[in-house]
Amino acid sequence: MPYICTMISIQAFTFNPFSENTYVVFDETNEAVIIDPGCYSREEQKTLTSFTENNRLKIKYILNTHGHIDHILGNDFVKDFYKVPLLVGKYDVATQRSVKTYAPVYGFENYREAEPDQLLEEGNTIKFGTSTFKILFLPGHAPGHIGFYSEPDKLIFSGDVLFEGSIGRTDLPGGNFDTLIHSIQQKLFALPDDVIVYAGHGNPTSIGEEKITNPFCALSLLK
Ligand SMILES: [Zn+2]
Predict the structure, then answer these.
(1) Is the Cα torsion angle 218, 145, 19, 29 positive or negative in sign?
(2) Cα of 141 to ligand 1 centre, how many Å?
């Protein structure tokens, strides 16, 4: 379903058996980015490309919040289809490289690795149309996890760090619970309360809502 903000428009798709959120983000110029393309089946690929073609979107970049399989299953297809660069977190390349070793175990025989074209770290910015994303470094769920924050649009795409009422798992390679909580409390909870969080799974939420109600990391848990 579409989420309409002041300048930016967001189309969310839920793809692959992990119910991963893939986002197409565009503004009034029709320039767009695709965040975490999790499309794997032919139908999912077609759903994504039909949307961008029907809306005459000009895809500029493919962005990954982190390199877990469910977020990158469609990297190779999307990169090949749109012929645009793939931008990934500088410290999560190893996470991404490891996917080809376990993809067949999960039944994704057709997974093909896509080569990153540019590595991102905190402080970098990404521009498309009239929009700008700032890169935030948010390790803990994955060692090189990053988020894409738009200050004027009051939104962040923060992958599997913070969910509505939950947090990302920390039992995968490179995960660390204390690091994750630190990322949430020091980075995400430093953002204004009305910033909307578009997560890698589940519904959007807000910083203010999670600060109060999240049972894993609410500020009320701080003594
Ligand atoms: Zn993940």
Answers:
(1) positive
(2) 7
Distance (angstroms) between ligand 1 centre and the Cα of 145 equals 9
Cα 68 to ligand 1 centroid, rounded to whole Å: 5
Residue 173 CA to ligand 1 center (angstroms) comes to: 11
CATH architecture of 2-221: 4-Layer Sandwich (3.60)
Render pLDDT for 19-36 as a digit per residue (tens, 0 to 9): 999 999 999 999 999 999
Ligand 1 center to 66 CA (angstroms): 7
Tell me the per-residue pLDDT of 79-132, one tens digit each, with 9 for 90 and over.
Answer: 999 999 999 999 999 999 999 999 999 999 999 999 999 999 999 999 999 999
- Three-state secondary structure along 142-211? CCCCEEEEECCCCEEECCCCEECCEECCCCCCCCCHHHHHHHHHHHHHHCCCCCEEECCCCCCEEHHHHH
User: pLDDT tens, 141-191?
Assistant: 999 999 999 999 999 999 999 999 999 999 999 999 999 999 999 999 999
**Interval between CA 29 and ligand 1 midpoint (Å):** 31
Domain residue extents for the chain: 2-221
